[in-house]
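Subject: for your reference before the review

Hello V.,

The reviewers asked for a structural picture of the protein, and I figured it would be easier to keep everything in one thread rather than splitting it across files. Below is the amino acid sequence we used in the manuscript, unchanged from the supplementary table.
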Amino acid sequence: MGRNPSVAVVDIGSNSIKLLVATRDAVGNLSALCQKTLDVRISAGLGRTAPRLGEDGMAAGLEAVQQLLALSSPFVPRQTVLVATSAVRDAANGTDFSARVKAATGHSIRILGGDEEANLIGRGLLCDPALAALRDFYVFDLGGGSLECLAFRDRCVAQAVSLPLGCVRLTERFITDPIWPVTTAVTTALALHVREVLQASGFHFGSGSTGAVFTGGSMTSVRAMTGAMHGVALADTPPFVSADTLSALIEETLPLTLAARKKIPGLPAARADVFPAALITMLTVAELGGFRHFHHSLHNLRWGVAAEALG
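And here is what came back from the structure prediction:
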């Protein structure tokens, strides 16, 4: 009997480009055949009024896409889907990057709108068996360009918004020189901005929620750092990150220079410059929602795209 059909998803984000090759098992659950993440930041200037992708970023992004497509090839996927989010969506020359990828690989990029991205993230979360018991809960996904916020009621999306609160975007706007420690004044201004944008969005933190889930590379880094402190691999760490942990990391890492942050075990050096903005954003979300902890999940956008493609 032949193997079930598979799909390859390449998720082109602001901070990283990720591959998921997935299939459905005998009972219909989505399972991964291959996963790979390349820390390639194609975004630059997201904090500007008219962002543009730089030449170096586009070249690095194209190379990463080609590497991941080559990695997926042995699985002979029935379908290959390339999706792009805020970095390409918001860039004035995002279509130029898409044309380069099409010319080099033969694959078109599906540039997701904010609402579309949020809903696909929600669909991906529902594939996580660790979340099967949750009925009413919130989901937050922090990327380089945007923050997706969702509220589930009886495992259906009741609210979904995409906000320009990505860690690359906020770093460029508030942290003028990320090689130096982040001051208290900058921390306060950035947190206030996140709070104001969330409140103005109309996203409602109501009662009756049984939990909050957080996805994205920044929260993965928090969990990896926590594990590294105890000599434990990411996969062996508990999937819960408390607001107290986020607060402690802010106190420990923001007074450091960029060079010092790059040496922290578990924190990818490529994320060290935008990590302070990510921490501040995540803690502000926790404070606004009254969340004592987040359940971290790795089932986000690419899982939702795979679920959609496999039907």
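For the response letter, the relevant points are probably these. Residues 127-296 form a domain with the Nucleotidyltransferase; domain 5 fold (CATH 3.30.420.150). The first strand starts at residue 6 and ends at 12.

Happy to draft the paragraph if you're swamped.

O.
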